[in-house]
Amino acid sequence: MTASNLISIQLNGENRSFDGPLSLLMLVEKLGLNPAKVAIERNREIVPRSILADVQCADGDNLEIVHFVGGG
Questions:
Q1: By the 8 A CB rule, do 31 and 52 touch?
Q2: Global pTM?
Q3: Domains of the chain by start residue, with CATH
């Protein structure tokens, strides 16, 4: 049996926990968002969309995710 690592983060001001390891891309997909239409700030730094798959969420991270919605 493999033990998973529980990661506690603050997501848009709300404390949340997820099974890890978890990349930012995986988190966005888990939240049901389109990675092409989000901007992510991690610990007060903007994360380029091109590296979302390479950046791992860490326990204690403070994330702000903004998703863009089209309309008129």
A1: no
A2: 0.88
A3: 5-67 (3.10.20.30)
